[in-house]
């Protein structure tokens, strides 16, 4: 299983792309601005897109992706998300005002994109990979995802979240956890703001990791631009027992 980090930043700027992870060459977890760095041929291979929640930095390039490969699509791209997330996409993006509704183009009978509601704790089997949604705690309804391949390797992605129990309970049910991509959007000095925005700080992440029975490679994402050094220092101080990497756009991992 190849995991390509197209985007993982909490903002934009030179070298910064918002959240999007490519699994092998056909599955996308979120569709932030990192999608825009793919070649057209790479975009056309994507068949399944799992959206963690409705915030713009996680969905912004979904409309552009579908529009760019419209003429090359033979079967509909499948888009999965919570009912609330699918409703937000339909009401506020693919509504014929902000963007055409590609779930009705070129016709309702043969669209290039199909929406699929995916409830928490449910799984979708795609070839030899199983994708399971895990509820997390954010300011809008959100989930993380666990991707398991045919060899039993597990990669988990938290999406955006703050302190919760559901993520850790679900991960503890796995026989193993090889890599966990989890956010730490703010430094410890901005604890009050992190509570309002429902993002982890290094200290709060360290506290929640005590609930986890596995010791995966931690891939830290969603660092806010300009705060990366302070967040990284906090992670180093709090997570000495873990293998921790503050990932960047363009990184890749093989499991």
Summarize the structure.
With 255 residues, the protein is an alpha/beta fold. It has one domain: Ribonuclease Z/Hydroxyacylglutathione hydrolase-like (Metallo-beta-lactamase, Chain A, 4-Layer Sandwich), CATH 3.60.15.
Q: What's the SSE pattern? A: EEEHEHHEHEEEEEHEHHEHEE
Q: Can you say what the CATH homologous superfamily is?
A: Ribonuclease Z/Hydroxyacylglutathione hydrolase-like
- Binned, the helix content reads 10-25%
CATH architecture classification: 4-Layer Sandwich
For the CA atoms, what is the radius of gyration?
Answer: 17 Å
Pfam families: Lactamase_B_2 (PF12706)
Domain Metallo-beta-lactamase: 17-189
Protein name: 3',5'-cyclic-nucleotide phosphodiesterase
Organism: Oceanospirillum linum
Describe the protein in words.
With about 260 residues, the protein is of the alpha/beta class. The chain has one domain: Ribonuclease Z/Hydroxyacylglutathione hydrolase-like (Metallo-beta-lactamase, Chain A, 4-Layer Sandwich). It contains 8 helices and 14 strands. The strands form 2 sheets. The chain has a 7-stranded mixed β-sheet with strand order 6-5-4-3-2-1-14. The chain has a 7-stranded mixed β-sheet with strand order 7-8-9-10-11-12-13. The chain is globular.
Give the topology, please.
Blueprint: E1 2-7, E2 20-23, E3 27-29, H1 40-44, E4 48-50, H2 56-59, H3 62-68, E5 77-81, H4 83-92, E6 113-117, E7 123-126, E8 129-135, E9 143-148, E10 154-157, H5 166-172, E11 179-183, H6 191-197, H7 202-209, E12 217-221, H8 228-238, E13 244-246, E14 252-254
Parallel strand pairs: 3-4, 4-5, 5-6, 10-11, 11-12, 12-13
Antiparallel strand pairs: 1-2, 1-14, 2-3, 7-8, 8-9, 9-10
